[in-house]
Amino acid sequence: DAGVTQSPTHLIKTRGQQVTLRCSPKSGHDTVSWYQQALGQGPQFIFQYYEEEERQRGNFPDRFSGHQFPNYSSELNVNALLLGDSALYLCASSLGRSGANVLTFGAGSRLTVL
Amino acid sequence: SQKIEQNSEALNIQEGKTATLTCNYTNYSPAYLQWYRQDPGRGPVFLLLIRENEKEKRKERLKVTFDTTLKQSLFHITASQPADSATYLCARDNFNKFYFGSGTKLNVKP
Which parts of chain A register pLDDT below 50? Predict the structure, then answer.
């Protein structure tokens, strides 16, 4: 049973460029959340997708956008990249139910902006 | 805001000893707290969840406590091993939107 898979694992971009990161959730999970983790920090919530809609959003600018597909996979898009966007981007899947939910994370996509 | 605070200093202990990590939260008590382990270059892995009405939860060598008066959770690893060396993250959940602490790095020396 595959867990959460993310691609690419590493990528390098320059300022002003755009990037797309991809995520396939764990089998049976229908909710995908994206987190940004800077070096030495904990993951920061970007947004969450459920039933192909953005359900919640953290304190991130509109340059960060996403999408969820009918098969529950998801994409994170970042436009007009800044140096400060360099981070590990983590995708986490879970079940969209009320009550206690546990996150299953992928290994992340390491983005470096030069 | 719903902050989660963890000691950012690394915790260095000797193999066989008990490691104790602290997680403090602000504002109202969450319905539950979660602990995750993260190895370098990897995503966090879920370890334990403790509910507000549970004072203590155990899983093998792991134990978590939840003190709503102190607004604190303690995470214990007994009989620690070098393989336990990692960063441990505490998280609270607000309607499936998770707030993580910055994590505490544990180093277990043989």
Answer: none
- In angstroms, the separation between the Cα of residue B103 and the nearest Cα of chain A is 6
pLDDT averaged over chain B? 93
Count of C-beta atoms within a 10 Å radius of residue A37: 23
Domains belonging to chain A, first-starting first, are 5-98 (2.60.40.10)
B97–A56 C-beta distance less than 8 A = yes
Q: Which residues of B touch A43 (CB under 8 A)?
A: 44, 89, 98, 100
Is there a contact between A42 and B102 if contact means CB atoms under 8 Å apart? yes
Percentage of chain A lying above the pLDDT 90 cut: 91
Q: Chain A: nearest CA to B60, how far in angstroms?
A: 19
Helix (H, G, I), strand (E, B) or coil at A20: strand
The CATH superfamily of B4-109 is Immunoglobulins (2.60.40.10)
Amino acid letter, A54:
E
Q: Give the H/E segment covering residue A107.
A: none
Domain-by-domain residue ranges, chain B? Answer: 4-109
A26's CB contacts (< 8 A; 6+ apart) are A1, A2, A3, A4, A93, A104
* Chain A neighbors of B8, CB-CB under 8 A: 40
Closest-CA distance of chain A to residue B3, Å: 12
pLDDT tens digit sequence for B65-109? 999 999 999 999 999 999 999 999 999 988 788 999 999 999 999
